[in-house]
Amino acid sequence: MKIRAGFDIEYECVQPTPMLLVLSVHPSRLRDLETPHHITFDPEIPSRDYRDDFGNICTRIVAPAGLLRMSTQFTIRDDGLPDEVAPDARQTPVDELPDDVLLFLLGSRYCETDRLTDLAWSLFGHVAPGWQMVQAICDYAHERITFDYLKADPMRSAVNGNYEQTGVCRDFAHLAVALCRCMNIPARYCTGYLGDIGVPEDPNPMDFSAWFEAYLDGRWYTFDARHNHPRIGRILMARGRDATDVAISTSFGASRLAGFKVITEQVVEEAAT
Q1: Closest CA to 7 of 86, 90, 81, 73
Q2: What integer pLDDT is reported at residue 273 of this predicted model?
């Protein structure tokens, strides 16, 4: 399967403003690219990429005063398979976790484990550890939060999402990540492209998507509390503790989002004759 994806985003700044962008395909998917992946800027400006502590590709720029357009479009190969389901995957005891995984047991800005631990154990303390527990957490977040684009709030945390019971994909992910960590299951936040492949088309405008990964039986597995069923065609951009680490843009000065468009669609290939 081939997928065409990309974005067209505009920011307006009142003066030259340093910005940090996390808008590139994750290094783990670069080998799958069919066409070059390169962010273009209009007007043209210098940019520099580096890899952060989580292995994500980050881009540094200084946005000029006025309107800056950033865009890319690429085609990528995908195996076309839904997210893996492994109901027998076991929970790894904390004392046996690799050192680099322990970070994803700790609370973070949007995932306040200290404020959710009592709730988590009251809800999931009786559930079998491992895959069944992570799925039970996804079920809870999926049922607890009602998806509503109009209720998006960049300041909403896992605790707030659980209380307000509304939000967007990042709120589902934050709540599930926090509850997993409360139950001693390492979990990390993911962001990327997810088109309507193999499912009915969503009438809402396309956006980047958020999901999470849980560490079970010595490896990371993909979970999605918003959709709560295996999906096809995820294109990972970045992973981190929560949305703070993978924000598509961080502006070190005043800026305004002036335009936003994301595309993710399956390429229809003609049958060989």
Answers
A1: 73
A2: 47
CA gap 45, 195 in Å, rounded: 30
The more confident residue out of 150 and 210 is 210
Which percentage of the chain shows pLDDT scores above 70? 99
- In this prediction, residue 204 has a pLDDT band, given cuts at 50, 70 and 90, of confident
Q: Which residue has the tokens 């390429």?
A: 267
Q: Bin 162: left if φ > 0, else alpha if -120 < ψ < 50, else beta.
A: alpha
Minimal CA–CA distance to 240: which of 90, 70, 109? Answer: 109
Can you give the pLDDT at residue 269?
75
The answer to whether residue 271 scores a pLDDT higher than 60 is: no
With helix as H, strand as E and coil as C, how does 106-172 read? Answer: CCECCECHHHHHHHHHHHHCCCCCCHHHHHHHHHHHHHHCEECHHHCCCCCCHHHHHHHCEECHHHH
Lowest mean pLDDT among 40-54, 190-204, 238-252: 190-204
Sign of CA dihedral 227, 154, 26, 249: positive
Q: Report pLDDT for 178.
A: 98
